[in-house]
Design goal:
DUF1949 domain-containing protein; 2 domains; UPF0029_Impact_C; alpha+beta; Ribosomal_Su5_D2-typ_SF; 4-stranded antiparallel β-sheet; Ribosomal Protein S5, domain 2; guanyl ribonucleotide binding; Alpha-Beta Plaits
């Protein structure tokens, strides 16, 4: 199950006189991530690098920002992937301390910076929702409402006309079981409306 994080979390490491200021935060797309990076440059004009990694589906990115290729952005992205995260931006502002760390040292520094910030973060599960619409005879309204409630679904809308129409959402993983239970309890009298039929 993929996770995101509840709020922005910061951490700081000092490695051979270089300062690594890391932040992990929820982020949905690349343009929003680039705004955050621009703000970091404004806040840290004396920084040597602002490296970042975004894990957000097709919007993902890994940016070394002048560090040797593959020593910052990609290792940061790998940390996010290993934690099964989605919709998360990791940034690391580096102030150079005068001592070169080498490629291996840089990979470790950027990896550790992001990992330290993630240790303090609160992970939240990303639950994919399934939206369903069905109609039932008036005599079955109570039964349908009970089944929806017992399944932990959220009843979004109920309308009454010739029949009772229910619009509700629930965790993707629970949808098939609820449909099956309602079909069985409704003896074929519950009609399902596909989203494109409306």
């Amino acid at each position: 199950m993929p996770y995101s994080i509840a709020a922005a979390v910061h951490s700081e490491l000092l490695i051979k006189k270089s300062r690594f200021i890391a932040c992990v935060q929820p982020m949905t797309d690349r343009s929003a991530a680039q705004k955050v990076v621009a703000e970091l440059w404004a806040q840290h004009p004396g920084a040597a690098h602002v490296c970042w990694a975004l894990l957000a589906g097709g919007q993902s990115a890994a940016v070394d920002d002048g560090e040797p290729s593959g020593t910052a952005g990609r290792p940061m992205l790998d940390v996010l992937r290993h934690q099964d995260l989605e919709g998360v931006l990791a940034t690391v502002v580096r102030y150079f301390g005068g001592v070169k760390l080498g490629a291996g040292g840089l990979v470790r520094a950027y990896t550790d910076s992001v990992a330290q910030a993630l240790l303090k973060s609160e992970k939240i599960a990303i639950i994919k929702l399934h939206y369903l619409t069905c109609t039932a005879p008036y005599a079955m309204e109570g039964m349908v409402r009970r089944e929806i409630e017992m399944a932990g679904a959220h009843l979004d809308n109920v309308t009454h006309s010739d029949e009772v129409r229910f619009e509700f959402s629930l965790a993707d993983s629970a949808a098939a079981q609820l449909i099956s239970r309602l079909n069985e309890a409704g003896h074929g009298r519950i009609q399902w409306i596909a989203p494109d039929d409306e």
